[in-house]
Amino acid sequence: MDAEALIDDLRARGLSRPVALLLDWDNTLIDSWHAIHDAQNHTLATFGLEPWSMEEIRKRVRGSMRDSYPQLFGDRWLEAGEVFYRRFAERHLETLVPLPGVPEMLRDLHEAGLYVAVVSNKKGDYLRAEAAKLGWQRWIGRLVGAFDASRDKPAVEPVHLALEGSGITPGTQVWFAGDADIDIECAVNAGCVPILVREEPPATDEFPDHPPALHVDGCMTLSNVLQKL
């Protein structure tokens, strides 16, 4: 569906242009799968576990480390987290690849007066270092990563932190866009409008409990919709 058709559909459902856009980071704004794949398999190997394929990485890397690593590494999850982050820190800035249309979208929405913030389950220090490396922080009101709030996505605390100081409260005037089910769930939990951003459309019954309000094939389409809505 093209931007004009998406806009007609949104208007028919009574959805108007938001005042704020919250964005996931990894694989919504940047392609980070290779850095994550490398660090995750290095960590698994260190603890005597079998490596994951890229397909497994894409399916299984969703929650934050403090939510997912205890299930993988038990009582040694903090140690495993240190191994992951050491490896990731060595390489993540070298492998940053912006997804198509992202810098233009951030710039255009900022200039149009939308409040834009990031809510990610990447550790906050790494998130902000990547944004600085790319020069994007000038367009982003706040970058919230894992451990910045008292809980991580899909909990609502990161959403509240991302909007803190903006004068905007969660609701239908806030859109939350991301590529994964955890982003859609977080949006619904916070009462925001959930937007799925990825090339492939949602499969039948993929989001039975938290369906997205809108699917767009990338940030270029999302930007077009927001500017024309």
UniProtKB/TrEMBL annotation:
- Where exactly are the transmembrane stretches of this chain? none
> What EC number(s) are associated with this protein in UniProt?
3.1.3.18
Task: Tell me the GO molecular function terms.
Answer: phosphoglycolate phosphatase activity
Q: Name one GO biological process term.
A: DNA repair
Swiss-Prot/TrEMBL keywords:
Hydrolase
A GO CC term? cytosol
Entry's InterPro entries? Answer: HAD-like_hydrolase_sf (IPR050155), HAD-like_sf (IPR036412), HAD_2 (IPR041492), HAD_sf (IPR023214)
Name its pathway.
Organic acid metabolism; glycolate biosynthesis; glycolate from 2-phosphoglycolate: step 1/1
Catalyzed reactions per annotation:
2-phosphoglycolate + H2O = glycolate + phosphate
Per the record, the similarity remark reads:
Belongs to the HAD-like hydrolase superfamily. CbbY/CbbZ/Gph/YieH family.
Question: What protein name applies here?
Answer: phosphoglycolate phosphatase
Annotated organism of origin: Candidatus Defluviicoccus seviourii
